[in-house]
Amino acid sequence: MDLSSINPILLIASIMVSATPILLAAIGEMVVEKSGVLNLGVEGMMITGAVVGFAVAVNSTSPAAGFLAAAVASALLSLAFGVLTQFLLSNQVATGLGLTLVGLGMSSLIGKPYEGIKSPTLPKLDIPVLSDIPVLGRMLFSHDLMVYLSLVLVACVWAFLKYTRAGLILRAVGESHDSAHALGYKVVRIRLLAILFGGACAGLGGAYLSLVRVPQWTEGMTAGAGWIALAIVVFASWRAGRVAIGAYLFGGVTVLQLNLQAAGADVPVALLSASPYLVTIIVLVIISALGAHGAPASLGRPFHASS
Amino acid sequence: MNRRTLLSTAALALTLGFGTAAAAQDVTAGFIYVGPIGDGGWTYEHDKGRLAVEEAFGDKVKTIYQESVPEGADSERAITQMALSGADIIFTTSFGYMDPTVSVAAKFPNVKFEHATGYKTADNVSVYSARFYEGRAIQGHIAGSMTKTNKIGYIASYPIPEVIRGINSAYIHAKKVNPDVEFSVIWAFTWFDPAKEADAARALIENGADVILQHTDSTAPQAAAQAAGNVITFGQASDMGDYAPMPRVSSIIDNWAPYYIDRVQAVMDGTWETKETWDGIGPGMVGIGEISDAVPAEVKAEALALKDAIAAGDYHPFTGPLNKADGSVWLAEGEVADDSTLLGMDFYVEGITGDIPQ
Amino acid sequence: MIRLEKRPQPSRLWTILAPVLAVLLTMFVGGLLFAALGANPFEAIRTIFWDPIFNAQFASFTRPQLLVKAAPLILIAIGLSIGFRAGIWNIGAEGQYIMGAICGAAAGLALYPSESLLIFPMMVLAGALGGWVWAMIPAILKTRFGTNEILVSLMLVYVAETILGSVATGLLRNPEGRGFPGSRNFKQWDAAHNAEIFSGTGMHWGVVFAFIAVIGAYVLLTRHILGYNIRLTGEAPRAARFSGVRPARIVLICLGLSGLLAGMAGLFEVTGPAGQISIDFNSGYGFTAIIVAFLGRLNPVGILLAGLLMALTYIGGELAQLMLGVPGASIQLFQGMLLFFLLGVDVFTNYRLRIGRREIA
């Protein structure tokens, strides 16, 4: 087996690109779950973001406008989930699944005219000085803006939850909505804001797929990325830093298995194809065996002020 | 009365009903698609064939279709419903529809069935497919001539004879012009997953490949190659001309329109009979997309000469001497592969490293 | 100001009225959708809800097909609903369905071409076992390490799909299939064929087992102490533990049961309507069944009706594509809307709408 043809510099650069969509969706979902809401509709919101972002970017020839529109569209879609679960107190698991169905169906209707065309894509940044550093420059400092924005977003979410009063309230609502309510916090309003934020992040992740990573629009193109994002939140034990690690690990295994195939590694292909999922399971087991959980106590439970 | 006779009676009544109510030559042609029409590849080209039928016959032919029909239980129901709705001829356009097509055909003896890429025929079931490997030979020739790193990446879908045939054909002709050439194959285990195809293309490029061949249907590899710069690719199933002249330097185009028009005409004339069609470049079922200017003039001329030789039947892409990957002799000097070996091909030719997943 | 007030008991009237209202709302909004797509809305709604059952041209074929399509959905949903009642979220029934089909088919194919009458029952057992084993992975990981079962069961779907692709092109490939992927066709092997029990009715063994499962689940949940413990675990986990219910045991039973039923559904499908193991054998029944379970409010009889309704929208949707040329995606959207409306309208079952200011309690 000759693996010398795998170039670690390029490999890491690829991993960063491949991890960014799930990272964006996962960090949004983490905030949602921190507020005590389980939204299984990430896949539906991502694909809506992918199609709306693509359509707007094509029509306006501006990828930035595409990303913005994607965030808004997916946030609006998540509002449907918010209204159903927060005001009409529907079951969150079922509503989330319904959101995925609606998102998949709607996106392919919207996307019909955009199949098979090219879109403007984000330019790779050429950061002066930094991108000229040998090795590291190519590896870490020659990406497009969204790669860095996603990492900044992770840092912001981390700081928000840890250091701000609003973050504390959000966590309190997720831990015990009844006590939070008793203290006078608007549980429903806070959860709605979290759901909107999660929707916007999922939309950005979807748009990153259709505008940068692939880049094109095709029906069903998220192909399960939203579910992976959900897995990564649990994997990360609801901690922002670990969400980033989880997304990069999953992206890493996905890209690495293709690189191993390309290099002619002597491993059964079926095993390689299944490896990202197997690795996720193994890491999940290790984490849970270590006893690090941290699931918000009210996760998935409906809240009604009179109860 | 059991279901079989019940259904065929219903079908008979229907066909008769149509015969008297409408003008005698009116025909309804149905199409069952495995993917969405907008996949830009396989299903898209079949649907272009359907539209060509509409254009050719105008009001005399009505076409109906159903897209994204999963192979398996759902397909048998979809085909039956199409037959019940009064279709006179039904094209089922994916390999996985083979057994369902044959089974529905037995219940509707008056409806004609055409199954793409399979091998089971009946009195009212024909099969048709295209010799894509002829196009692969031309791709291999261009790829072998143009690679500078001597590494060619191949994104394969599933380990089935058609895909293996394509890899072998491309390899043989790349090797002929460039003895140092190496193939690395990624099995994607999907026909269509743009994100995965893009990742696979990037992985191949990062491993040194400067030519990407694909047997999956999206244009994602083209986009990845374009981003990488000095990498060439070929359109698959459809022309993918948006990516010309670079990275897409040529393409294999599935052109089903002439066949569909021909078969619908046969139903109209009452001359339809069971047929096994396996056509290539010559009859036009396999089209070679324009070779772009990124290809050096002499390579282009050679590729066109190869295309003409194949089309005229003067040259067969699988001509001996050829050995199998395990070193055993497959074809002796000058010997030409027979169709049944090609149809069931499950081995690499000598020189391709790695294993076919089992 | 409008607000909701919790009813002391779920409203009986609304339990029945809510689904009807939801279907009517879906018809209305769906009609607008089809009109926007350029189809006649009345014709579209009639094609989806009426034609599969009553259209003279199709109904003799589609009516039995409703049972065929609904059977795996009901069978899987019943298993899932028991777990959901206990707060155990098996999202990976699709994987258990695939593994059931693979194991059952493999067990049968190992004995090809024997015509023994024992083959089919043995395949059913092997299929159930395959689904059970696949569900035991998340179950044991949960009881042993506390690993989240939603994710493990979901990840295992992707693993099962890879295995399916691999056996369809390798281990179980039909040796007489000229190298093409896919196993032998069970329809051509009488001993292993899950044929219709009464010709022309759509009644195959999967349908029979779906009905048995509905009755079994009903008895379990209403008449049996285990069913009581399951419900208690879901509604009041702490109370359940005090009354001596062992949570680990409930996890193993619930996941095991749903895996068992999903595996059986896979086996009935592969030997019956599908006919063979192929690369794309699975068509999302495992995921759709989750929706069916919730549409049926986790109630066995409700699931039976929800499964039939879901089958109706599938087959009606196919007819709408065929006859009216509406795109397949609009049907998916239509089903999503149906689910949304049901979930939304359901609020009236448990809550009362009050207009006016809240009295001071």
TrEMBL record, chain A:
Gene Ontology cellular component list: plasma membrane
InterPro entries in the record: ABC_transp_permease
UniProt membrane topology term: Multi-pass membrane protein
Domain of life: Bacteria
Keywords per UniProt: Cell membrane, Membrane, Transmembrane, Transmembrane helix
Coiled-coil blocks: none
Pfam families: BPD_transp_2
Official protein name in the record: Branched-chain amino acid transport system / permease component
Organism: Antarctobacter heliothermus
Automatic annotation (TrEMBL), chain B:
Keyword Disulfide bond: no
Residues in coiled coil: none
Gene3D superfamilies in alphabetical order: 3.40.50.2300
The keyword Signal is assigned to this record: yes
Keywords, sorted A to Z: Signal
UniProt-listed SUPFAM superfamilies: Periplasmic binding protein-like I
Domain (ABC transporter substrate-binding protein PnrA-like) ranges: 28-306
Protein name per UniProt: Purine-binding protein
InterPro entries for this protein: ABC-Purine-Binding, Peripla_BP_I, PnrA-like
Signal peptide bounds: 1-23
Gene Ontology CC: plasma membrane
Organism encoding this protein: Antarctobacter heliothermus
Pfam families xref list: Bmp
From TrEMBL, chain C:
Record GO cellular component, one term: plasma membrane
Transmembrane segment boundaries: 12-37, 70-88, 95-112, 118-141, 150-172, 203-221, 250-268, 274-296, 303-323, 329-348
Pfam families according to UniProt: BPD_transp_2
Membrane topology, record value: Multi-pass membrane protein
Cellular localisation: Cell membrane
Recorded superkingdom: Bacteria
GO MF, any single term: transmembrane transporter activity
Keywords, comma-separated and alphabetical: Cell membrane, Membrane, Transmembrane, Transmembrane helix
UniProt name for this protein: Beta-methylgalactoside transporter inner membrane component
Originating organism: Antarctobacter heliothermus
